Amino acid sequence: MSLQYLKKVILKKTDTTPSGYRRSGLDDPDVCVTVSEIVRQDGEDILTKANDIIKALEKILVLRNKSLLKEKAPYKNVYIKSSKSHAERLIELNARTLLSQLPQGSNFRVDANGRIRPRQNTDRQDQQQRQPETEPRHQPQDQQ
Predict the structure, then answer these.
(1) Looking at the DSSP assignment, which residues form a beta bridge with residue 110?
(2) d(CA 5, CA 54)
(3) What is the pTM of this model?
(4) Where in the chain are the domains?
(5) Locations of Basic and acidic residues compositional bias (predicted)?
(6) Which pLDDT belongs to residue 84?
């Protein structure tokens, strides 16, 4: 989203309140963002830095509203999650590998942040449903 686009949105949001007071889009928290304490060096393009901040805010907004997608029919099966860096993916893979090698590793899981957490009962049931049985269950026969 460019700054020109933001300016257009701000101008479109400008309206008049019931008392006749003309309200600027700069008063609207949905459109206006205040960023302070940005370190700026000589010769640095401040618009590039502002656009980077806007992109980050857009990503946050998308991730916060992703749960609303399930309410729309075309997007019912669409899933959005934040991408992970190579290092984060490696840490998560290593944690899963470690858990698979531990005797009680099936009692734990790796959460979205890469932390090792104990499984809840529903997690264990889901895991058991996904894994095929290795041995057929022995059913006792009725003795007469």
Answers:
(1) 116
(2) 11
(3) 0.37
(4) 3-37+46-75, 86-130
(5) 120-144
(6) 75
